[in-house]
């Protein structure tokens, strides 16, 4: 059996996803980081961006994460985010609409949020 | 029907209507408590992980941060009081307000100036009526608070604590809320959010004896702490808001239950009084008839002779 790590993706008001994985890729403020089992203990600040989790049964879980933290110790990885959505929870049409709206209003923050959602949805 | 009886009947009708209303409110509150409790439980994993992370950074690095270091002589403190928007919850709001007033008094005795922040219309009305100064107040979400609401409440507080005391910032942040112990027990508690005492945080997360690994900080310990602490405050305020909401619904349920019980008792008493009045009326009518009949008999007997 390949080595695996336990992942918990937690949003402020619920646990979004948890399970075993072999690789997690997330975007921190200083660049993308990939965590595999046995990684050295890590605590980092996340940028808003898609998070990719390669589960131990070979599947892939993609989630859009808006700000938060990644922490890894004892083969347990937690992704903490104020807002986190799995790619299949994302309403693509709504995100597209929001992107248009944000572009029209020049709201860079909202534009980025919608963009991250769309990219996560495309990666599923 | 006699006047007395009519009055009783009318009162019974009105109390019955009130009883129906309080019964409905009781049931609504009961279902909301369950929902609120579920939300408290759902927010726990995030709070726990965050607390762990804060402990990890606090103990794993020698970083000094304004949010974790105590001022030598604190001169100003912020108190955040959580009340509800609506009443009909027994002593729920007055207990929270009382706890806040005790805390304020204690802080003032220790020579600190207190800035009050209030959540909920009830608390605000209490302070406004007494013409006490409130720095900022929030309302409209106490029944079902969301994380966005907690962020909104936390923003000015974090801003105030980051500012220098000389420029109107605060040294300490206290929060007063009603802890949801059980369906029957809710207690108003106050706790100090900032500056953070790491021992307390560790004790709370149950990680006191756990040896935390040496973390690699990305990008750096200071930056992580900078990003972490505001989130920690937000999550604590969110948790307090949720507990306060659950407590409020539990208190409403209890208050409405006793109101329903009282109404039932009142209806019983009133029906007994109404029965007695009806009986008295009948007795009076009979005695009037008997009296009239015997008067007639007497009169007839007199004329016969």
TrEMBL record, chain A:
Compartment annotation: Cell membrane
Superkingdom of the organism of origin: Bacteria
Membrane disposition: Peripheral membrane protein
InterPro entries linked: ATP_synth_F1_dsu/esu, ATP_synth_F1_dsu/esu_N, ATPsynth_dsu/esu_N
Predominant localisation class: membrane
UniProt entry tagged with the keyword Membrane: yes
Residues covered by the ATP synthase F1 complex delta/epsilon subunit N-terminal domain: 5-83
Compositionally biased tracts (Basic and acidic residues): 99-118
Region (Disordered): 99-124
Pfam families per the UniProt record, alphabetical: ATP-synt_DE_N (PF02823)
Subunit note: F-type ATPases have 2 components, CF(1) - the catalytic core - and CF(0) - the membrane proton channel. CF(1) has five subunits: alpha(3), beta(3), gamma(1), delta(1), epsilon(1). CF(0) has three main subunits: a, b and c.
Reported function: Produces ATP from ADP in the presence of a proton gradient across the membrane.
Entry similarity comment: Belongs to the ATPase epsilon chain family.
Full protein name: ATP synthase epsilon chain
Species name: Streptomyces violaceorubidus
Gene, per the UniProt record: atpC
């Amino acid at each position: 059996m390949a080595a695996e790590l336990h992942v918990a993706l937690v949003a402020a008001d619920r646990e979004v996803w948890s399970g075993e994985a072999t690789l997690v890729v997330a975007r921190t403020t200083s660049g993308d980081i990939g965590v595999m089992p046995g990684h050295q203990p890590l605590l980092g600040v996340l940028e808003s961006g898609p998070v990719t989790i390669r589960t131990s049964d070979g599947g892939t879980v993609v989630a859009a994460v808006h700000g938060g933290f990644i922490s890894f110790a004892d083969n347990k990885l937690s992704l903490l985010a104020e807002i986190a959505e799995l790619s299949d929870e994302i309403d693509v049409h709504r995100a597209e609409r929001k992107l248009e709206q944000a572009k029209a209003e020049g709201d860079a923050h909202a534009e980025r949020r919608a963009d991250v959602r769309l990219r996560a949805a495309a990666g599923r | 029907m006699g006047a007395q009886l009519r009055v009783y009947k009318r009162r019974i009708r009105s109390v019955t209507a009130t009883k129906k209303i309080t019964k409905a409110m009781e049931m609504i509150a009961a279902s909301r408590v369950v929902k609120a409790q579920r939300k408290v439980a759902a927010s726990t994993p995030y709070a726990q992980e965050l607390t762990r992370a804060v402990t990890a950074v606090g103990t794993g690095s020698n970083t000094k941060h304004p949010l974790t270091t105590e001022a030598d002589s604190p001169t100003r403190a912020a108190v955040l009081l959580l009340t509800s928007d609506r009443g009909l919850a027994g002593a729920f709001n007055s207990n929270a307000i009382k706890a806040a007033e005790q805390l304020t008094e204690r802080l003032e005795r220790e020579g600190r100036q207190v800035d009050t922040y209030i959540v909920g219309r009830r608390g605000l009305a209490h302070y406004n009526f007494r013409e006490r100064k409130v720095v900022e107040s929030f309302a409209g979400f106490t029944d079902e608070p969301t994380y966005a609401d907690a962020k909104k409440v936390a923003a000015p507080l974090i801003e105030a604590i980051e500012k220098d005391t000389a420029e109107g910032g605060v040294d300490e942040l206290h929060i007063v809320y009603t802890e949801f112990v059980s369906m029957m027990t809710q207690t108003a508690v106050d706790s100090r959010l900032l500056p953070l005492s790491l021992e307390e945080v560790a004790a709370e997360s149950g990680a006191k004896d756990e040896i935390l690994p040496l973390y690699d900080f990305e990008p750096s310990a200071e930056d992580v702490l900078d990003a972490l602490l505001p989130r920690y405050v937000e999550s604590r305020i969110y948790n307090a808001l949720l507990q306060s909401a659950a407590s409020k619904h539990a208190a409403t349920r209890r208050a409405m239950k006793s109101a329903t019980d009282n109404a039932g008792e009142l209806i019983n008493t009133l029906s007994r009084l109404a029965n007695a009045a009806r009986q008295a009326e009948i007795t009076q009518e009979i005695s009037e008839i008997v009296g009239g009949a015997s008067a007639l008999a007497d009169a007839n007997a007199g004329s016969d002779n």
